[in-house]
Amino acid sequence: MNCPYCGKQMKESYIQSAQQLYLNFGKRPRLFPAGDLTSRSLSRFSLTKAPFVKAHYCDDCAKIVIDLNEGKQNRKHSF
Q1: Sign of CA dihedral 59, 20, 23, 53
Q2: Does 2 reside within a domain?
């Protein structure tokens, strides 16, 4: 994927956490975002696999791009 800011090739990477990942729309981070109906889950919770979402990272711009449609597919797989 090419960076939408500078046009250079981005590095394929993963953002992972010990807990489920959420996108919070315009609100301060919450301790329990799952209860917030305006938050969007980016990863699926699992007791046996670390939650993750595939991302692309640009070294030059220090930007991360996450394709939310691609993330739906990634939630079903582990690496």
Answers
A1: positive
A2: no
**Would 4 be classed as within a structural domain?**
no
Find the domain containing 54 and state its range. 11-74
Contact 43, 26 (CB under 8 A): no
Residue 68 lies in a domain: yes
Please enumerate in sequence order all residues whose Cβ is within 8 A of that of 46, keeping only pairs 6 or more positions apart, or say none: none
Nearest alpha carbon to residue 53 among 8, 20, 28? 20
pLDDT at 51 over 70: yes
| pLDDT on residue 77 | 39
pLDDT at residue 33 greater than cutoff 80: no
Report yes or no: 21 and 53 within 8 Å, Cβ to Cβ.
Answer: yes
Task: Provide the whole-model pTM.
Answer: 0.67
Spatial CA neighbour of 2 closest among 54, 63, 71, 70: 63
In a domain, 40, yes or no: yes
